[in-house]
Amino acid sequence: MCQEYGIATPGEGLATSADEAVRLAEELGFPVVMKIVSPDILHKTDAGGVLVGLKNAEEVASGYERILANASAYNPQVTVDGIQIQQLVSGGHEVIIGAVTDPTFGKIVAFGLGGVLVEVLKDVTFRLAPLSGDDALGMLDDIRAAEVLRGARGARPASRQALATMIERVGALVGDFPEITEVDLNPVFAGPDGAVAADVRILIGELPQEKARIPRRRSSSR
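RE: above sequence
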């Protein structure tokens, strides 16, 4: 879905064995990140389902078994679809871009500081979806940490256009598919050259019967 809407994500693949995990890691290039893929685990870190910065085949093979053991300890009845092997993305500013469904206002797009800071600082701003590029640019200036993203104290600035484009496309995604109840891109690593969503969570709910939808074809640029 992210690829269809032009939302950049790291290279990745799904492994269902330790050997397959090693093969994918070698194809993507070290270091890599490993993440549990399970319908029973929504917050992967809480279940010990994320390993970051694995540097060689041995670490990936042992990491595969460790994640499975952690998942079983977290939930003995857990269903595991596999382990996602992903290119390691780092550097730049960590931000969150997402969308929620409000019972009164409908789809609302959110932007703010990401990673663990989103829970601590709660520096987030909101707009109704879908939104224009100008609306998305305005969101970048609405948070208290706006100056940080501009490159305060010698830090490299985040690409405003890349972030605004990703915000706008998240709004288009939830606008096109009302059955999407929540989107969470966190963290998004944003630097001078662009923005990449390192982790993506999309929740689907039942589409109300009265909300008929006519799908639109997406252009290759979206």
